[in-house]
């Protein structure tokens, strides 16, 4: 059994994208606070990581399609095809987010590195915008990210795939946003040495998200035990479900603990290692998700 390893480009794409959405929402909340506004320059510099990760995610998604040109073909049926909707909403989130970041960070770069090319041009555009444009823009980008994650979940809720067509699909995607996204934002804030209280809060959010994930995974296992067709029983698709999920949760718990102690001691390498453990745990869970693919067959559809 492959346990979903054959879909590794999609595994990386979905987990990276959901982590970026979660981290952006968390940083948006930070920037609404007084301390967030005071250190907005550092936070925006750190936010560059999000768009690098998002670019990597889209690169992996095109590998799944076979070639980048097919990504444009996948946009042909926006509003009618869930695949088109996923790519369109993801592209919109990426474009809005990176566009916002380029405008917002230009103000700080102009002060710190005034001789960089194009910075003056972008900064002049930013200076013509209303004073509170940044707050509104971040909210719009955050909402577009949530729409993207919702479109991603809807893509997999296919009536002919009973193992995916359940509440556990949006729940698992949402928990990746919560767990991996919160921890990514905490690591970025640790690097920028801003808002210690918010950093700790994000780690606590990730921890409680992990507890919810444990309960959801147990309920999902009970659900999968009852799903079968004339050919397959769902758990036969992922015979290693229990022990792989156990490894995931141990890695995530260790990772969250490492980030928690790293924040207290301002240890960036330890914080990165902790996040990578949690991220790897999410990759394991997503690999199992793709390994669960099975169809009900024509007979079950009444054909």
Question: Could you characterize the architecture of this molecule?
Answer:
The chain has 303 residues and is mainly alpha-helical. The chain contains twelve helices and no strands. Helix 11 runs antiparallel to helix 12. The longest helix has 31 residues. The C terminus is likely disordered.
Taken as a percent bin, the fraction of beta residues is: under 5%
**Could you spell the SSE succession in H and E letters?**
HHHHHHHHHHHH
- Taking Cα atoms only, what radius of gyration do you get, to the nearest Å? 21 Å
Structural class: mainly alpha
Largest sheet: none
**Span between termini:** 30 Å
- Supply the number of helical segments: 12
- Sequence stretches where pLDDT stays below 50 over 5 or more residues: 299-303
Apparent shape:
globular
Q: What is the oligomeric state here?
A: single chain
Number of strands: 0
How much helix is in the residues?
over 70%
Q: How confident is the prediction overall: mean pLDDT?
A: 90
What is the secondary structure topology, with strand pairs?
Layout: H1 8-31, H2 34-38, H3 40-65, H4 69-73, H5 82-112, H6 119-127, H7 133-156, H8 168-192, H9 196-224, H10 234-237, H11 241-265, H12 268-291
